[in-house]
Amino acid sequence: MSSEESPDVRKTFTFDINAKDSEGSFVNANGLSIYCKYWSTDLASPRALLFMSHGAAEHVGPYTQLAELLTDQNFFVFGHDHQGHGRSEGDRVHIDDFRHYSRDVFAHIDRIKMDYPSLPVYILGHSMGGAIAIISALDRPDFYKGVVLIAPVVTADQDLIGPCQEIFGTMVSYIFPQFPVFKLDSSAISRDPAVVEAYENDPLNYHGFLKAKWAICLNNAMKEIESKLATIEWPFLTIHGEKDTLVKPIASEKLHAQSSSADKTMTIYPGAFHQLHHEIEPDGSTARQELLQWLVNHEQ
């Protein structure tokens, strides 16, 4: 996002800072209303800002458990439903440019920083939200004090799109950008049946086929990230489930091995699935505590 874009977006931003668990919205550069969530508006003196970046086909609501752990440690935690997700406007899980996601993240954070100009900023991204976090940190490498990733989409060797599928998908995406290409397997998000059931019954999640243009945009983002891994110098934590079939752990492994960061940590959880923050116990609690402790340690 260019510096010229932010003021125009900020002018349309609205939110309630007086109520806990407040909601808000802003109109992005595509003219779409973006639903915002704030878990921390009653904190008198927050220690840092933390933006939650959710994954594909979901929304920010299910991050409340993790957000409340962080607000208890005095982090100002907020996020929004990405364009085309949850309560935000836009064709479902459709995008014309992957950086429209990161542009909106910057617009939102920049607005909150107007109220807290001296606070450091962290971003926490899961799955596609991890790719958004990484792309935004690549674009503005000094913007975040740290990046926290849960099963991030990093590399193009995920078997999502093969070479032939990529060629076909690129052609289709120009003609029929919302052509259905594949569905996510909800049974692969967690080993906890209650988590899977809640995911499947949540009307704010998108349960249809993912689209051709979105898939190509994501694939291109993965290629860009992988080509720039060696340029990454910012602090990060990445955690991944060993048995994650939606985003294979090679994503986190490559990020950790090839980045140039002096401050980097990776944990692979044996047997775990995609949503580590919603995994069976004790893995779920352990993963949430690891994220929390990493952030607290960086703010001591």
UniProtKB/TrEMBL annotation:
| Stored Gene3D superfamilies | alpha/beta hydrolase
Please list the residue ranges annotated as the Serine aminopeptidase S33 domain. 45-280
Identify the Pfam families for this entry: Hydrolase_4 (PF12146)
Q: Taxonomically, which superkingdom? A: Eukaryota
Q: InterPro entries under this entry? A: AB_hydrolase_1 (IPR000073), AB_hydrolase_fold (IPR029058), Hydrolase_4 (IPR022742), MAG_DAG_Lipase (IPR051044)
Q: What is this protein called?
A: Serine aminopeptidase S33 domain-containing protein
Source organism of this protein record: Elysia crispata (lettuce slug)
**What phylogenetic lineage does the species belong to?**
Eukaryota, Metazoa, Spiralia, Lophotrochozoa, Mollusca
